[in-house]
Design brief:
By secondary structure, this protein is of the alpha/beta class. The protein has a single domain, classed as Ribonuclease H-like superfamily/Ribonuclease H (Nucleotidyltransferase, domain 5, 2-Layer Sandwich). Helices cover about 35% and strands about 20% of the residues. It is built from six helices and seven strands, in the order βββαβααβαααββ. The strands form two sheets. The chain has a five-stranded mixed β-sheet. A hairpin with a 2-residue loop joins strand 6 and strand 7. The longest helix has 17 residues.
Length: about 190
């Protein structure tokens, strides 16, 4: 069975990270906090792919997220702008912590031989024609159910529903049904339709 893990990563470990395991069309979700817990759950799950909602790279020319330069957008961010998909740049306030955590987690997982991609559930939901969580969790859950995803329940948090979206985009990626926004290591995978 093909297993994909989706993570709606929080910027810091004391905030909830949505964790989803997608096997075929069935999802199991939970909320985790610490990186060691995330890594252990991924190791136990043995996924084919980990799809993370967090910036996993810096803009070209930046050596660190804390460096002060005029460069705030990655190539994939510019593609989101061209397509009129709303997002927060990696250098904006709280996004700095999320970017640092995402890059560190990516390096750790890749060193363990896991394949990792960056995804953006809000943008994916826009492309798929389903409501973002800000429109209501019931509406987002209903939209995900229309995609034939099984295991969605009313008690799921917005973080868990976004993690499901991440895993779904990961599944589409493995099936060759995504577009790559950006190039090299500055990429976000998005549904092709």
């Amino acid at each position: 069975m093909l297993i994909v893990v989706g993570l709606d990563l929080a910027g810091v470990e004391n905030r909830p990270t949505g964790f989803c395991t997608l096997e075929e069309w069935n999802v199991k979700t939970c909320v985790v906090y610490e990186d060691r817990e995330l890594i252990e759950k991924i190791r136990e799950t043995k996924p084919k792919l980990v799809a993370i909602d967090a910036p996993l790279s810096l803009p070209t020319g930046r050596k660190s997220i804390d460096e002060r330069t005029g460069t705030h957008l990655r190539e994939c961010d510019r593609e989101l702008l061209r397509r009129r998909i709303k997002f927060f740049p990696v250098t904006l306030g709280p996004m700095r912590k999320l970017t640092s955590r995402g890059i560190k987690l990516r390096k750790t997982l890749e060193s363990m031989n896991f394949d990792v991609i960056e995804v953006y559930p809000g943008g994916a939901q826009d492309i798929l024609g389903i409501p973002r969580k800000q429109k209501g969790l019931d509406k987002l859950g209903g939209g995900l159910k229309k995609l034939k995803i099984k295991g969605i329940v009313k008690a799921m948090s917005g973080d868990e529903l976004d993690a499901i979206t991440c895993a779904y985009v990961g599944k589409l990626f493995l099936e060759g049904k995504t577009l790559t926004y950006g190039s090299d290591d500055q990429t976000i995978m998005m549904p092709s339709s």
